[in-house]
Amino acid sequence: MFTRRSPLVGVYLSAILLLMLSLLAMLSSGISQQRQQLTRHADTVESQLTQVLPTLVAYYDTEAISRITNASLSSELIQITLTDQITAEQGIWSREDAVVQTAFWFEKLNSVQPIDRVIQLHHDGSEVATLTLSFSPHLANLQIAKDFNQSALTLSATIAALLAVFTLAFNHGKRAVARITKTLNSLAEQDFSSSQAKQRSGVKSLDTALDNLSSHIQRMIQSLHKELKTLNNSMMYDSASGLPNRQFFIHQLNSWMGDDENVPGAVVIANMGWLETIYRRYGYAARDETWRLLSTSLQSAFSAFPNVCVARISETEIALILPECSEEQSRNSLHILISTLNNEVNMAGFDTNEGFHIGVVHGHGLPGTKLMSLADNALQRAIKQHDVFVFNRGSEEQVIDRETWRSLLNGALKNKAVRLLSQPVYRFSGDTTEPLHQEVFTQANIEGTWQSGGRLMPYIQLFEKGVEFDRVVVEQLVKLHKEAPISQPFALNLTDESLENRLFISWLQDLLKNELPADKICFEISEASARNNLAACISFSDAMRKVGATIGIDHFGRYLQEVEYLSALKPNYVKLDQAFSQNQNAQNRVFTETLANIAESKNIIVIATGVKDDESKSRINADFIDAYQGFIHPPAPISQPEQTA
User: Fold this and answer.
1) CB atoms near residue 165 (< 10 Å)
2) Which terminus of the chain faces fewer neighbouring Cβ atoms within 10 Å, N or C?
3) Rounded to whole angstroms, how far apart are CA atoms 339 and 360?
4) How confident is the model at residue 642 (pLDDT cuts 50, 70, 90)?
């Protein structure tokens, strides 16, 4: 309390000191003035009596002497003593009503002192008597005390009033500074909508400066986001159809189907020769209009698939990537595509199932370039055989029907047949060899084989097992913590289902309070989740921060679009999508730098992913990237407890 009030305490002490010094100066001046006044009065009385009394003493006119001396007595002159030099007679005159002196405290400070005058009276050159005058300082001291009290009261009231005004002004300024501090902290976090960010100090000039600063920051941030949007529109979209172009499709393919991923999915390539016929008959304007209509139909048909990407990859070809989907879902998507194309073909005046061919490949554990090649092979076979489509499997695997998958997944979760692996994230700079954190990967035992979480994700989503799966993973981490306390931060990915499940979030909060070190736990939210369900992600992030956990963003920049969700989620770090590391071309470098600048403007750590080896690491620009992760440091099991399938 004293520390918070120390500026005011200093002012108060200074005011008290000034008051005391002023009063002492006034007291000194008053004493000097009254001393001089009493001395002047003594001189006057002395002059008068020395002129009158010698003659009266010489003629022994005692009556006149008594009358004159009594008339001369006053509050200051309290006693007159006259001693005859010849007869040695002595006459004393004093005031009978003389007030007993009151002792004032300032009399100890060399105040007005009594004055005693002894004067020799002479007449015709002879000494006739000795006159003694006694002057009292009581009246002078009384006047000094009166003046001092009045001045002290006036000066104290004035200083007290000034201090009150100063205190009010100081507290107003202090409140203004506190409000400004909150506002600046909010602006530093690029939070322009909260009540703290809208607080004003009450000082007009300062509020105007804050408004200008806020507007300037917003313009800078909007400029960065606008730059990203401009890059996306100019480099990644086909102007005629409004669909993403081949570059964007390859980016998505490398993102979802990277070498380090084991995500199942499908790649579809459709060749639409009927569009070439329209071009020859009606020209490019009719062809482009047909492309726009087809684009609208395709986007509407696949709107229920949140992660699907439909792109125009050549003059007459479109391609689709269907990540995190089972073979059954891939076949259903194929039927939707055929139905959509048939509608467009019929509207253009062609027969059903004519004018287009489709090649499809479904697989997992294969890089995107391989899947693209297999899909193109399937398309060429369909064209050669005059088939509407050819469906291939990209990997040799036993086909398991839906209900069997349900049973296997339920068994793995019931028996907690799950193990955890971790992969370190290292900084580019710094003397420490300790990782920034360890990302946790999950594997489940399915029919005696450890399958990755990405491989199981389509079925986890299909059977709505996300919350149950995440609970098993977190419980495994709790078990490991009990065996060997967690000393390094761990990062976990959660399913979308868990991010919006209030019961799961409440359970997780209790666990972080009682059984896990919350400050060592970080939860990663994918960019897809942030884009598809931002409200749930914000609610989850706020709940985790309340108990001390941190938040990160995974697959940052996967969609090469606006990333305003950063301001709402306020993550500690972002992990650039691995597609930026797969191909270090000029285009990727421009997007990487733009995304890194946006994150850097919010003081967010930027991590590169998909770093395979030292050569890949050396190509990363450490001026923009803070840390890296990838198979340069492969995931290693944290523990391998005995599991039952």
Assistant:
1) 10
2) N
3) 15
4) very low
Strands (E) located in 453-600: 490-493, 521-526, 550-556, 573-576
DSSP annotation string for 201-244: -S-HHHHHHHHHHHHHHHHHHHHHHHHHHHHHHHHHB-TTT-SB
Enumerate the H helices of 237-308 as residue ranges: 246-256, 274-282, 284-301
pLDDT of residue 343: 93
Q: Measure Cα distances from 137 to 35, 71, 143 in Å.
A: 8, 19, 10
Q: Which two tokens stand for residue 567?
A: 């301001």
**Contact by Cβ (8 Å): 247, 236:** yes
| Token duo for residue 640 | 């391998």
Q: Write down the H helix ranges in 59-113.
A: 62-72
pLDDT of residue 358: 95
| C-alpha angle 307-293-388 in degrees, rounded to nearest 5 | 70
Q: What are phi and psi of 262, to 5 degrees?
A: -130, 40
Cα distances (Å, whole numbers) of residue 23 to 150, 397, 486: 11, 101, 69
C-alpha 369/C-alpha 455 separation (Å) is 19
CA 390: distance to chain centroid? 54
For 388-410, the pLDDT digits (tens) are 999 988 766 666 778 888 898 89
Q: What distance in Å separates the CA atoms of residue 352 and residue 157, rounded to the nearest whole number?
A: 100
* pLDDT, tens only, 602-613: 889 999 998 988
Share above pLDDT 70 across residues of the chain, in percent, rounded to a whole number: 88
Our separate counts of H helices and E strands in the chain read: 20, 19
Distance from C-alpha of 643 to C-alpha of 545, rounded to nearest angstrom: 34
| 480 Cβ contact partners less than 8 Å away, ≥ 6 residues apart | 420, 486, 638, 639
What's the pLDDT tens digit per position in 583-597? 777 888 888 888 998
**CB-CB contact of 307 with 313 (8 Å):** no
| Type and span of the H or E element at 133 | strand 126-135
* Top-ranked range on mean pLDDT: pick from 169-173, 186-190, 227-231: 227-231
Give the contacts of 92 (CB within 8 A, at least 6 positions apart): 79, 80, 81, 82
For 496, the enclosing helix (H) or strand (E) is: helix 496-499
Task: Give the residue, 523 or 448, on which the prediction is more confident.
Answer: 523
Query: Which amino acid appears at position 181 of this protein?
Result: T
User: 211 vs 145, 183, 218, 223, CA distance in Å?
Assistant: 58, 10, 10, 18
What is the phi/psi pair of residue 365, to 5°?
A: 75, 15
pLDDT band for 141, please (50, 70, 90 cuts): confident
Q: How far is Cα 364 from Cα 396, in angstroms, rounded to an integer?
A: 9
Q: How many CB atoms lie within 10 A of CB 347?
A: 12
Instruction: Give the Cβ contact number of residue 523 at 10 Å.
Output: 21
Q: What is the DSSP string of 10-50?
A: HHHHHHHHHHHHHHHHHHHHHHHHHHHHHHHHHHHHHHHHH
Which residues make Cβ contacts (< 8 Å) with residue 311, sequence separation at least 6? Answer: 238, 243, 244, 245, 246, 248, 249, 252, 318, 319, 320
Per-residue pLDDT at 325 = 87
More confident residue, 621 or 190: 621
- Backbone phi and psi for residue 265, each to the nearest 5 degrees, phi listed first: 180, 180
Q: Which residues, in sequence order, are CB contacts of 107 under 8 Å at separation 6+?
A: 141
Please tell me which residue, 307 or 108, carries the higher pLDDT value: 307
